[in-house]
Specification:
156 residues, alpha+beta, Jelly Rolls, 5-stranded mixed β-sheet, 4-stranded antiparallel β-sheet
Length: 156
């Protein structure tokens, strides 16, 4: 039996929000508007591009942005008092511009962020001491008109 936790509820709500938004968009394209857009919960831009779970101190995870203006995100379980660092290496973007790496706490608030510019340069954040126990998100962003990829590693 799985326990219902706040992070599980947040993941389900995020998935439901993405589904509802996608349905509304499809209906609008078909010329049907059964529900006002304001009736749906706001879905943060980073939620629509979540990727997977990264395990702390395990091998790196590929991060890929295939649509300009989107982000790539991965989650990990953190414990209050734990010190973590994250780095994206092997960064390549279509515009060779600047990228941002952001750590979000279990409530979605920004803990810290870092940026780097140019292909091949790593982007790192931390070490930072986690204030809460729960599911943290690491978000990788390129410029609004760029695609890109790299490898994410989270360590203690």
């Amino acid at each position: 039996m799985k326990l219902v936790t706040r992070s599980r509820i947040q993941r389900v709500m995020s998935a439901v929000g993405r589904w509802a938004f996608g349905l509304l968009a499809a209906l609008a394209l078909a010329g049907v508007s059964p529900v006002a857009a304001s009736a749906l919960p706001a879905v943060p831009a980073w939620a629509a591009s979540s990727c997977c779970t990264v395990t702390v101190n395990e091998p790196s995870l590929p991060m890929k942005i295939t649509t300009p203006g989107k982000t790539a995100s991965a989650t990990f379980h953190g414990t209050a008092g734990q010190r973590v660092s994250a780095v994206v290496t092997g960064v390549v973007t279509s515009d060779q511009g600047c990228e941002t790496l952001t750590l979000l706490d279990p409530t979605g608030a920004t803990v810290t962020s870092g940026s780097g510019c140019g292909n091949g340069n790593p982007i790192s954040i931390g070490p930072v001491t986690l204030a809460k126990t729960g599911t943290y998100t690491v978000r990788f962003e390129t410029g609004n008109t760029a695609t890109g990829h790299g490898s994410l590693k989270v360590t203690t």
